Amino acid sequence: MTEANSLVQYLKAGETSISNILLHHYHELGMSTAQLVVYLEFKSYLDRGVLDPDIRQIAQHLQTDENQVFDLLHQMMSNKLVVQQMRKLDDGKEDAFWDFTPLINKLSTFNEQEATEQVNTNTGNQRKETFNKIEAEVGRPLSPMEMQIVNDWIDRDHYKAAIIDLALRQAVMNNALSLQYMDRILRNWSRQGLKSVHDVQEHERQFEERKANYSHQDARKIQGPKIPIFNLNSQTKKN
């Protein structure tokens, strides 16, 4: 067989994809390595539209016997990873096939749990960083009451860590470093619907523009309209 023909045969054989969640966490889903390999064999057929592959063929690929494959499938049934369903064929007869939907559902649930755990981990890290930044600025550990205030910002008010950092910088710049002052800043931003650093910065930019415009208008009012200046001495001589 030529190299070109070998490549054609390789491409015709197709490929079987596998979720990284399954690959990395199949033991946590209740699967053994042998069960994982059996599932992959089935998936190689399912991906090509073959719902009921020949168990003898699968056993041959795995270099085992049919009984071992059936035993592994029944173990997976006990762990609610696969069920056997019935389907009606074109000739009206019914046929049984293995349905791995329960395994897919477990993968989806596990993915959601993993995402939730990651969010919780990130939130915990951000909370710790927020405490560290505030303590670094005040130069001492926070009291239990102060820690509760910061926790309320995060858990009750749902202020983002970046917004709390910005309020801390504002307090430092204004020489008013206290959690009460920061709380007033955060509540003021919240009332105005400012939920991100970009929102706050854009609001401040617009405020500075309005302030500059008002200052320019006030200067024009003070200057007033131009009034002609008469030479009083010349008017006196004419009289």
Automatic annotation (TrEMBL):
Domain DnaD N-terminal: 18-117
Pfam families with a match to the protein in the record: DnaB_2, DnaD_N
Ranges of residues in domain DnaB/C C-terminal: 131-204
Region of interest (Disordered), ranges: 200-220
Entry superkingdom: Bacteria
Record-stated family: Belongs to the DnaB/DnaD family.
Protein name: DnaD domain protein
Organism of provenance: Limosilactobacillus vaginalis
